[in-house]
Design brief:
Elements lengths: L2 H9 L9 E2 L7 E4 L6 E4 L1 H6 L11 E10 L7 E14 L5 E16 L15
Antiparallel strand pairs: 1-2, 2-4, 3-4, 4-5, 5-6
Length: 128
């Protein structure tokens, strides 16, 4: 798996910035959200409790998500379970200015099953 894919997964994604994740089964297709089963989001107890705070802000909302991804390659169509954390972030315009009261979830994955292939199947010929 390319380093850029790993960096993207570590930063997280939004519905508008879905990353290109190689399929762990066929390695040729890309994983995407399963359209019949969107990612389910649950707000954490801590996040719900923070709403009682006098100075509460929407950016404090966070929790866990889970769902199914599917390989886009017609010959594969592997289902991959994913789970992780999410939080609300502010919507910004092209000049990085706050766009009013617009917020959207940022998803940061923690687990994939079947697991993503992070290393090549065989080591390189020369290891230094």
């Amino acid at each position: 798996m390319e380093v850029e894919v790993l960096k993207t997964l570590a930063r997280g994604w939004t519905d508008d910035t879905w990353p290109m994740i190689p399929c762990p089964s066929c390695s040729r297709g890309e994983l995407g959200p399963h359209h019949q089963h969107p990612l389910a989001q649950e707000e954490s107890w801590e996040s719900r409790d923070w709403r009682k705070h006098d100075f509460w802000e929407p950016e404090w909302i966070h929790g866990q998500f889970h769902g199914a991804l599917v390989c886009g390659r017609a010959q594969c169509r592997e289902y991959v379970a994913v789970t992780g954390n999410w939080k609300l972030i502010e919507q910004r315009d092209d000049e990085n200015r706050w766009d009013g009261d617009s917020f959207y979830p940022l998803f940061t994955p923690r687990f994939f099953l079947p697991a993503l292939k992070l290393l090549p199947a065989a080591p390189p010929d020369a290891v230094t």
